Amino acid sequence: MLSAGLTAFLTGITEPLEFSFLFVAPVLYGIHVLLAGTSFLVMHLLGVKIGMTFSGGFIDYILYGLLNWDRSHALLVIPVGIVYAIVYYFLFDFAIRKFKLKTPGREDEETEIRNSSVAKLPFDVLDAMGGKENIKHLDACITRLRVEVVDKSKVDVAGIKALGASGVLEVGNNMQAIFGPKSDQIKHDMAKIMSGEITKPSETTVTEEMSDEPVHVEALGTTDIYAPGVGQIIPLSEVPDQVFAGKMMGDGVGFIPEKGEIVAPFDGTVKTIFPTKHAIGLESESGVEVLIHIGIDTVKLNGEGFESLINVDEKVTQGQPLMKVNLAYLKAHAPSIVYTNDYYKS
């Protein structure tokens, strides 16, 4: 949140902050819209005239406001801004407490992660989604399970998180559970469960034994990670997707390519190629794992615009071409290229 706040302050790009409460607390966004609108009206009535190059952040305030303060009346922004900050704080605080809004940090206490075997996990997720009758549409990509439900009130969000989801997004009746690379397998298993191809495994009793023996965890080595092509690297918080911007898939960066060729960022092995070719999982020689996710919602393109140049389990070297991408086609459908590290849970 600190990086998102600094980005909003310096550049005026407020989407990372707004996305943190837009879907979980739309009441706050409504208050934000009203206050933002009246702030422009107040500035106009006070005769404040400050231009902007992009989104009206602190940089624009200095260049087009303070440097021309005698004509722009930019100093009036400071007292008005302080008043609005106080109004924002108390209105948001009142709304959050009054309506018990689940803003970041105020989610229900998560229960301890349940012991759910790989075979049992899809059944547990299906139950947490409200059961077979509550599923209207089922889909997935390499980062998240996408489920359209009939009745959102039947969905156990805390239960889904307890099953291992790093986050759950709610957009209307559409639920997005962030299970990472295993999301697609969960989707396939859930579909087979719903069609009757898979039956629920029998319950087994597990006895836990405590041990005083020390556990030795092997430390991973370090890996130099290079850009996956020619282009511009941007902070992950600026990527127009809440899952990546919120680092639910791990830390990383955004990448804006200039050429339609994605290359290996280090020497290593290809671990995963998603069927629609929009995502590649790599593991370095020292064990560092990186996910290169090409575009936002590009799973819907069904492989159009992508040409894979490698295979799973193939050894690659830094700079080796991995994927050819039709940028002209993708620019009309995908905002950015993203790659994150540590996408496997250790």
From TrEMBL:
InterPro entries on file: Dup_hybrid_motif, Glu_permease_IIB, PTrfase_EIIB_Cys, PTS_EIIA_1_perm, PTS_EIIC, PTS_EIIC_1, PTS_Glucose_EIICBA, PTS_IIB_1
Listed Gene3D superfamilies: Glucose Permease (Domain IIA) (2.70.70.10), Glucose permease domain IIB (3.30.1360.60)
Top-level division of the source organism's lineage: Bacteria
GO cellular component: plasma membrane
Active site (record annotation): 141
Subcellular location: Cell membrane
Domain PTS EIIC type-1 intervals: 1-108
Organism in which the protein naturally occurs: Staphylococcus aureus
Domain PTS EIIB type-1, first and last residues per copy: 119-200
Protein name per the record: Pts system, glucose-specific iiabc component
Keyword Nucleus: no
